[in-house]
C-alpha cells in the first residue's frame, strides 16, 4: 500500500481528483468504480471544476458504483443514483448509458447482484476503484465479518452504519436497512484502488487497518492483500498513526 499524506480535506480531494483525471486522460476506455458518502464530495467538485475549466472529457469513461440502498427509487434524493447525478454525472459529458449503479428496486435482488457482477466483467473490470472508509472499517457496505470471497450481494446495514448515514435522511427510522453492495472479492479484483480518508473521526480506524494483519473483522484491512492500493489521508486522519509511530 502506498500512503500519500494530504494537509487537509481539500488537499486530499485535489490529490484524488488529479489521480482520477490522469487515468481518464491516459486510458482509452477507463472503468471507474465510484463511491458516495461525505468523503468524495469535494473530489467530485474538483472533477466538475476541472471539466468546466480544462475540458477534461468523460465521453470514453464508464462507471460502476459500489452500492445502492434497497427500496429507494433512483429519483429519490436519498438514492445513490441521485447523489451521483447531482455530484458528478449531470455536470460532465459522460454518456448516461455508461454510468451504472446496482438497482436497489429490483424485484429479484439475487439476480440483480449476478447481473452487476456480469456487467463489471463485460466492461473488462474496474481500472480504478475509489473507496471511502467506514467508521467500523467497512468498504462499500461490507460490514465487519463479510467473507473475503464475497461478490455483489444484499446486506443488512449495521446500526452504526445507519446512524452514520442518518444525517442524509429525515430521521434514523427512514434510513434503509438493506443495501446492494459490491463484495470484498469484487473490490479486490479492481486493477487499482484509491482509498480516501479524512478527519479525526477516522484516525482510529485508519490506525487499526494499517497496524492489523488482514482480517475479516476489519474489512478494509483486507486491502493489504491487493497489489496496488493508494491511500490518500489527511493529517487529522493520520494523527493516531503518527502518534503511535505505526509503520505498515
Ligand atoms: C459509499 C460507501 C461507504 C462509504 C463509507 C464512508 O458508497 O460505500 O463505504 O464510503 O461509509 O462514508 P463517509 O465518506 O460518509 O464517511
TrEMBL record:
Keyword Cell division in record: no
Record-level Gene Ontology MF annotations: glucosamine-6-phosphate deaminase activity; identical protein binding
Record domain Glucosamine/galactosamine-6-phosphate isomerase: where: 10-228
Keyword Translocase: no
PROSITE patterns listed in its UniProt record: GLC_GALNAC_ISOMERASE
Catalytic reaction equation(s): alpha-D-glucosamine 6-phosphate + H2O = beta-D-fructose 6-phosphate + NH4(+)
GO terms of biological process kind: carbohydrate metabolic process; glucosamine catabolic process; N-acetylglucosamine catabolic process; N-acetylneuraminate catabolic process
UniProt feature coiled coil, ranges: none
UniProt xrefs under InterPro entries: Glc/Gal-6P_isomerase (IPR006148), Glucosamine6P_isomerase (IPR004547), Glucosamine6P_isomerase_CS (IPR018321), NagB/RpiA_transferase-like (IPR037171)
Pathway where it operates: Amino-sugar metabolism; N-acetylneuraminate degradation; D-fructose 6-phosphate from N-acetylneuraminate: step 5/5
Key words, A-Z: Carbohydrate metabolism, Hydrolase
Similarity annotation: Belongs to the glucosamine/galactosamine-6-phosphate isomerase family. NagB subfamily.
NCBIfam families xref list: nagB
Protein name in the entry: Glucosamine-6-phosphate deaminase
Organism per entry: Bacillus swezeyi
Amino acid at each position: 500500500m502506498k500512503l500519500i499524506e494530504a494537509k487537509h480535506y481539500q488537499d486530499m480531494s485535489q490529490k484524488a481528483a488529479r489521480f482520477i483525471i490522469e487515468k481518464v486522460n491516459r486510458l482509452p476506455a477507463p472503468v471507474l468504480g465510484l463511491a458516495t458518502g461525505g468523503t468524495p464530495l469535494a473530489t467530485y467538485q474538483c472533477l466538475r471544476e476541472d471539466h468546466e475549466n480544462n475540458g477534461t472529457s468523460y465521453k470514453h469513461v464508464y462507471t460502476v458504483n459500489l452500492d445502492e440502498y434497497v427500496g429507494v427509487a433512483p429519483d429519490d434524493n436519498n438514492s445513490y443514483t441521485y447523489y451521483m447525478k447531482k455530484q458528478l454525472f449531470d455536470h460532465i459529458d459522460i454518456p448516461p448509458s455508461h454510468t451504472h449503479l446496482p438497482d436497489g428496486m429490483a424485484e429479484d435482488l439475487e439476480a440483480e447482484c449476478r447481473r452487476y457482477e456480469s456487467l463489471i466483467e463485460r466492461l473488462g473490470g474496474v481500472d480504478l476503484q475509489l473507496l471511502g472508509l467506514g467508521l467500523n472499517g467497512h468498504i462499500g457496505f461490507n460490514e465487519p465479518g463479510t467473507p473475503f470471497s464475497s461478490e455483489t450481494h444484499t446486506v443488512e446495514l449495521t446500526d452504526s452504519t445507519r446512524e452514520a448515514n442518518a444525517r442524509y435522511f429525515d430521521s434514523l427510522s427512514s434510513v434503509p436497512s438493506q443495501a446492494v453492495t459490491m463484495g470484498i472479492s469484487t473490490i479486490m479484483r479492481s486493477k487499482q484502488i484509491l482509498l480516501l480518508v479524512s478527519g479525526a473521526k477516522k484516525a482510529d480506524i485508519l490506525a487499526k487497518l494499517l497496524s492489523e494483519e488482514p482480517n475479516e473483522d476489519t474489512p478494509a484491512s483486507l486491502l493489504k492483500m491487493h497489489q496496488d492500493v493508494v491511500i490518500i489521508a489527511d493529517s487529522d486522519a493520520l494523527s493516531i498513526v503518527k502518534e503511535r509511530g505505526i509503520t505498515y
